[in-house]
Every structure is written in C-alpha cells, then in structure tokens.
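Single Protein Entry

Contents — chain, fold
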Amino acid sequence: MANRNTLHAEKLVAFMAWLVSDGWTVVPNKGEYEVLRATKSGRKPLIVYTRNSEVTHLTVPDSHMGVLRAFIRDTKAQKAETKPIVSWGSMLIDAIPFSQLPQGVKVALACDKCEGHEHHEKLADGCWRCDCGDVKRLFGEGTSK
C-alpha cells in the first residue's frame, strides 16, 4: 500500500535535502510518475510518486513511512530556526546546490520562454531543459547554449 496524503508537493525539495543530510543519495528517476528516487546502503530505494501534475500531495510507499515521519518530526523541531520557503527554486538553492543534483532530476523553475514555473530536467552536461524545450545554464553550470 501507499500513503497519498502526508507529503505535500511543496515539501519535496526539503524532503530531498533532508534525505541527503541523512545519508541518502538522490538518483535519476525511472518513469514519468516518479518525482524522487533515493538510495541508501542496506535499504531498498525510496521512491516518491505523483499521480498527475495537478496533485497537492505525493505518494510514498508504506515501507518508507518511517523515513517520512522522521523528516516531518525533524522539520517541525527546526521550524522556528529555518527560513521561510518561497518557491521550489529558492528552496532548492538553500537546500542543495544545483551542481550536486544528479542528471535526470526534475525541479520546477521559472521559464522565460513559456512564462511559467515548469518542470526542468537536469541534463548530462549540467544544463536544465524545460518541458517547453528551452535549455538554460544556471550559475555558470553546463555547456549547452
């Protein structure tokens, strides 16, 4: 079974950052419904899913609810000490440098070409490709033009 109402989509990048700080490694997603895949020595992969692009909560398998509960407990304990989260982009910059994210990871970033916050996928050369096809370099990373 899976839990579909505990992890809010806006908390995904914070959860990703927490996993990295807890020793997990974020790896590229496999499949269109995966939004996060992480591995840790001795554990089966933790996979977070979305049912579609309009959901507010993400799906976490019951086998990893203990990990999610630890994240929620830790973030509630640190709530008074943390900066407010404005958007996925700024949250990602505060949590994990773009350069450390693996190829294939998708994040929501502002896109000038399609004038919205669209999913951008990190390419092998370090650039980010928007769903609309626009490719951009961030903070001097990447080689695509």
